[in-house]
Amino acid sequence: MVVAGNVLLTLTVVVGLALMATLSYSEALLRRPGPLAAEKVVNLSRTSGFRDIGDQLEREGVVDNAWAFVAGVMLRQARQDLKAGEYLFPRGASLNDVIGIIVTGKSVLHQITVPEGLTSEQTVARLLENDVLTGPIREIPREGSLLPETYRFNRGITREQIVQRMAADQRRVVAEIWAKRAPNLPLHSPEDLVTLASIVEKETGKPAERARVAAVFLNRLSRRMKLQSDPTIIYGLVGGKGALGRPIYRSDIERPTAYNTYVIDGLPPGPIANPGRAALEAAANPADTRDLYFVADGTGGHAFAETLEEHNRNVARWREIERQQNGQAAPPAAAPAPTQRPTLPPRSRN
Questions:
Q1: Is residue 66 within 8 Å of 57, Cβ to Cβ?
Q2: Are 219 and 291 spatial neighbours (Cβ–Cβ below 8 Å)?
Q3: What is the pLDDT of residues 223-241, one digit of tens each?
Q4: Rg (CA), the chain
Q5: Alpha-carbon gap, residue 100 to 82, rounded angstroms
Q6: How far apart are CA 31 and CA 37, in angstroms?
Q7: Strands (E) located in the chain
Q8: In the chain, how many H helices and how many E strands?
Q9: Residue 59 needs a FRET pair 20 to 30 A away by CA distance; which of 40, 109, 228, 285 works?
Q10: Model pTM?
């Protein structure tokens, strides 16, 4: 019995030492740098089992041996925790690193940027061009209902899901800004706010000018003056296509459409684009000014005026800049024309 006990004790010690050596060796294998010479993105399918994942990782050069990956997963008891996705594996990632990345499920994030001022039709076209997004878009969203922004997403997200996210973000942002709007604005609803903001968005590309441009249109609304915004002419002619593709002609200015604010009174029946947060904030909290006019100043911005006389001087300066840019001689002096009703002459063509 003593001998048998000694043998059993010896075997137990040997087995224990062997297990410790095996675990130590396995741990060293798990932590040993892998074969990747540079970081690599691998897309793991939702239908792949953990043995299939091992085979794919070996083919992609992420691990040296598929069975080593399988053994590592079993050792970590992580078989049920592996998640499908698109993963970025760093250079020299160990088996431990590889398994940890797949278990945490931190997939690669792609992004798409939708600029401010695109129409919903143009926004849909941009989403359809993205080859990471999947699926169709059932219909063109209502104009002004999408928030321009940079959106991050995992591979496999549908275009319809991005559209829904953009719409939800726009509703949230509009509600927040409308709740904090300045008092006594001549706007009656959040829809009016979005419509005005879309005009501001198309009128100026300078962030510092947005609040002042918004003030001009709000001042004109308060005085029941026509807004006379060139981008509304364009939208009335081509709708969601966005671009006219040529200069605005006098016949366009006089052509009656539902959106032409040289013809209609007040705001158009809806937005002419999807305004961003900054344009919405400008429309809700305009600059404190009595400006009623603005015209291009030759620098990419605008010259503002409170009176028609001052505005006409700004227009004359802009015409001279245009002549100089086109290499034209100044026209001969002519008798001043009779004073017409206040107008906003053509500005930058958005």
A1: yes
A2: yes
A3: 999 999 999 999 999 999 9
A4: 33
A5: 9
A6: 16
A7: 40-44, 85-89, 109-113, 150-154, 293-296, 302-305
A8: 12, 6
A9: 109
A10: 0.79
